[in-house]
Design a protein that fits this description.
This protein has about 120 residues and is α+β, with helices and mostly antiparallel strands. About 35% of the residues lie in helices and about 25% in strands.
Length: about 120
């Protein structure tokens, strides 16, 4: 059985394989009580996001995960899309939103993991 960290690494790799830009995996498990890992990636459009979302849905079927919440920060869905899998939260952001919110800086105490 895969650990949560192994699943987070596989999701980060999935984002990279799906042409997500500048994919980052952060271990924030010791910093809060509501999730363990952030997967952060930049996307080019809502169509790009939809493709990556489809990949996530296919991945969770075989890996004992479920989507708790999916939120969009902008009305057209192009700025920031969040997919909450419980122990793993995926942030798919436009380059402008990613620069503005700078989650890596906000969660600087998190450990950046290789995948």
């Amino acid at each position: 059985m895969k650990t949560t960290e192994e699943k987070a690494k596989e999701i980060a790799k999935l984002m990279e394989d799906g042409k997500g830009n500048d994919v980052t995996l952060l271990d924030i498990s010791g910093l809060n009580s509501w999730t363990d890992y952030f997967v952060i990636a930049s996307v080019n459009s809502s169509t790009h996001w939809q493709g990556l979302y489809k990949d996530v849905k296919n991945y969770i079927k075989d890996n004992d995960l479920e989507i708790h919440v999916t939120n969009r920060k902008s009305p057209d869905g192009d700025d920031w899309n969040l997919i909450d899998l419980g122990p793993i939260v995926i942030h798919l952001m436009s380059p402008a939103a990613r620069e503005f919110y700078d989650l890596e800086k906000l969660w600087f105490k998190g450990k950046k993991l290789d995948f």
